[in-house]
Amino acid sequence: MRTSSALVLGIALLGAALPQATLPAQRVAPPQPTALSELRDTVSLYVSDRGALLRRWSVPYSPARAERLTAFYTEWRARLARMPFDRLSQEGKIDYVLLDNRLRQELDQLARDARLAAEMRPLVPFGAVVAGFEEQRRRLESPDGQASARALADLAKQLDSLTRGVRARAPQSANIPRAQRIVGLRALDYLSGLQTQLRNWHRFSSGYDPEFSWWTADPFRRVNEGMTRYATAIREVVVGQKQGEEEPIIGDPIGVPGVTADLGFEFIVYTPQELLQIAEREFAWIEAEQVKAAREMGFGDDWRAALEAVKQAFVPPGDQPAMVRDLARYSLNFITERDLVTVPPLADEVWRMEMMPPRQQLVSPFFLGGEVIQVAYPTDSMQHDDKLMAMRGNNPHFSLATVHHELIPGHHLQGFMTQRYNQHRGLFSTPFWGEGWALWWEMLLWDKGFAPTPQDRMGMLFWRSHRAARIIFSLRFHLGTMTPQEAVDFLVNRVGHERANAEAEVRRSFNGTYSPMYQAAYMLGGLQFRALHRELVQSGRMTDKEFHDAILQGGRMPVELVRARMLNVPLTRDYRASWRFYQ
Fold first, then answer.
1. Cα separations (Å) of 237 from 139, 167, 184, 232?
2. Is residue 436 part of a domain?
């Protein structure tokens, strides 16, 4: 057990400071799936208008785009404020609170984008020039061929100068600070977008407008080639990625203000430090259970040796799809026999399976799911060591917790139901609801004896520890107290990951498209559902089936608003997080 006495004391104080009101053990009628929000069409209108604007104002980090979107979000907030909030039903009030929260989040993101653009300006000082070309086209203004050629020629010279400047830093590349590498990696994505915008702008008139084509052919070619050379220089010198190498794991931490703001938008009232304490407390429970399982397996207190034995129990090549099929059937039978949630027969009929390509396994070494479950397992083209690590990391005992997470009752059932109930709330999708739901089922099924053997329990506990680790490494990374390499080591040493899988997990978390709070949301969302289940089901106020059906029928939203919907909590226009869900 690694939890220090000081941490245990802090956690005890934390729990003591969070009393929960005792609610009467009386029946609660689940929200009716036919109850419609008065704001359903309003939310759908906002989604349509926002989508149209984003397609029109498509140049990233453009001041003109930021100005237009700021006006749009501000106008929508004013429009909401004019609505008669007190006359809305609970469903309507929930949509009001959710939409206003989303608008505040959008405005906050525009402010963050402005800060990010300012950090990139020394590397990409010509962003406004390229944005100006594209925005002129969007305004349907005819281009001046000669003036455009002059601007392109100046840009080509600027790119050559910038490239020489970056190349001159090559001898000191190893000493470039991490903060500059972060900005460099972000600038590469920005450059790629600018180059695409420039090509679209030129393609619109080239070959059609003779004068434009005559003037711009050569300078456009030099700018296009110059942007490619400049991006290569940044990648090799600033980011530190040589040709043929995998992209280094760098990420883009959002800092304490960003983490605090994002938790507020997710209706999480806890501070980052409190969430780290929660993760450590969950880790302590997991490690105690791992020792119990290890003892049953004959390894004494050495849960790491027991975990290693579980990893060795992988199936032969070619047998993984059959194993996934059998686990899917097992989980479906388990939940239907206990009447835990409604599973429409069509939901079971339509899910499908695909094998994950080797390259995708570099960032997703385990299952991905939904209506199509993507199975990660080695192919004959992979290197021998990579094959073994992939097989060990996707053994049947580990997969016991991941197959139902991705299919039924996890993500596939989620998607199936949210396409049929309150579909407009897809705008308010959050990983605390999406991943939290699937993680909650891992917790509930554990409590109901889903894992029949100590090996199976060890497999489920591996994933439980992985989720606790995600809270710690993702929060600490964004708070600036853990580097990506330290995160990899943490997953290897604390959780028991294969190193290649740990690197893929951290790369997926920080170099991909996941929001900063995404990885922490798995267990934290699951803990929120666990607290709500205790409040409603364990108290006898709802059945399991009523509880789970009501969650799915309510649509996607932060879990605190799920609670407000199911308990009819009084809401105000400016409702903010208040639920202390962890004890």
1. 38, 7, 9, 8
2. yes
